[in-house]
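Batch manifest, entry 17 of 40.
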Amino acid sequence: MAERIVIALGGNAILTDDPTAQAQMKALDATCDYIVPLIAAGDEVIITHGNGPQVGNLLLQQEAANSEKNPAMPLDTCVAMTQGSIGYWTMLAMRGALKRAGIKKLVQVLAMTATVSPDDPAFKNPTKPIGPFYSEEQARELMAANPNETYIEDAGRGWRRVVPSPEPMELPGCAGINALADAGIVVICTGGGGIPVLEDDKGVYGVEGVIDKDLTAEKIAETVDADHLVICTGVDNVCVDFGKPTQRALSTISIAEAEQFIEEGQFPAGSMLPKVRGCMRFVQSGEGRRATITSLECLAKLNEGAGTTIVR
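Output type: structure tokens
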């Protein structure tokens, strides 16, 4: 039975060891080849994506060239810039993958904001990793040179800069997503979690931060009445006791079991935790909804039990 599926792509689907535009486009070519079989089966596909590595690298470029005549752009503008560039690359890759599969479908990118609260505690507690990995020594040198920046160890992979990651309260563009999906168009939207903005009676204002794309993906899936939320990451399954001799992969878990694992601190705040929380929220939001965390390679096996599925 055909489904409406929201797919959230992680950094591994876009950025490999080579950060050039050409390499990222090549990675997306392979990524879209994994998605096309779902479209061929009749599913409506809505794609969103992260931008953590890209927005961090762009910030470094901005800061390196900063001058009075060429001022560095703020973080929210960098989010918008990467939303545009990655959305463009993904659109080209998806159009190419559809052509190779002999499928005639339109693909559309939507630039979208996400409204956040000025009182969100995330603004005082940055947790979202962006940019490249550093050694501990390099990270401490960077913090000494830039007291307003925070770097933390990221799941055993190295140290990264972290920035505020407020919760998305509202996504004003969801009506547009619905209209396009209803018309049979493949939608690419809310890259990087959406551009964070504040709203009041006088207007709408950008705010510095990077919204977690997995929480935004959940909100999209809920709002457009999707059947299935799929969060793609670099591993086939969610694991507990990650990196320990007792590490084990999870197949199907209940919301109660997921809560217990969260209380045990099994999932890092900047990586697996928002994925699990996003899936839990989506499953809780309506009857018959499914949520899966898995790798790109396992997308074709979703109906065979691939990945980690969270159920009520």
